[in-house]
Amino acid sequence: MRWPRIIFIALSLLIVGAFVHYTLPQRDIVRVTGTEIIRQDFSGLNRIFYAQGDSGNAIVESRDLRLINTILPSGAVMIYRNEDTGFGWPPYFKLNSADLHAEASNLVSNAEAPQWVAVSHYGWRSRLLTTYPNALSVRPVAGPDVTLVPWLGIMILLVLAVMGFMAWRIWERFEDRVIDPLRDRLAVQWAKFKDKTGGRG
Q: How far apart are CA 121 and CA 97, in angstroms?
């Protein structure tokens, strides 16, 4: 009885952790190398990783997708998509993808005269599924070594931790008041039934 419970809890934590990691805002320090608009086809595998089209546009299987091409301080390439989240999920209420595209284009720099920027985003980069994290904002920073404290992410994690602790305490009380007495009653009834059927009742 112990192992199924441990496996269930571990799987639940893994799913919740992946969901939180995908959804919570993160920030990268990068150098913008260019912006572009590509035609993106959506399949059944990658459709869930994309937000809706720009507000007012119909949802289609193929549409233009704004991209922000960047280089990380390590030299690795990172590409962000730039699309509205609208009033859907996650609830960032981003409606300014066209403006953000112009801001990112204005921050393009080269390796000789780098302009480092902080890109706030959510999501994952997957080359296999052709998915990109969605940029929420870009702003210039002093350099690649600047320290940015993710206050919003910390606050959300604290709220989730408190809610998780409260849910755990409520479940413990429910177990003590309802499940354990019910289990005891069933065990007694089962023992009486076995005694009756065994001719000992």
A: 12
User: What number of other Cβ atoms are within 10 A of residue 105's Cβ?
Assistant: 13
3-class DSSP assignment, residue 52: coil
CB atoms within 10 A of CB 109: 15
Q: Could you tell me which residues come within 8 angstroms of residue 123 by beta carbon, excluding any fewer than 6 positions away?
A: 22, 49, 81, 131, 132, 133, 134
68 and 135 Cβ atoms separated by less than 8 Å: yes
What class is the 25-148 domain? mainly beta
| Cα of 112 vs its chain's centroid, Å | 35
Contact 86, 93 (CB under 8 A): yes
The amino acid occupying position 160 is L
Give phi and psi for 30, each to the nearest 5. Answer: -145, 170
User: Rounded distance, CA 171 to CA 182, Å?
Assistant: 15
Percent of the chain with pLDDT over 90: 49
Tens digit of each residue's pLDDT (9 = 90 or more) over 38-76: 988 776 667 777 765 554 555 556 778 999 999 999 999
Locate the domains of the chain by residue range: 25-148, 155-197
Query: For 86-112, what is each residue's pLDDT tens digit?
Result: 888 888 889 999 999 999 999 999 999
Task: Note whether 120 and 136 are within 8 A (CB).
Answer: yes
Mean pLDDT confidence for 160-187: 88
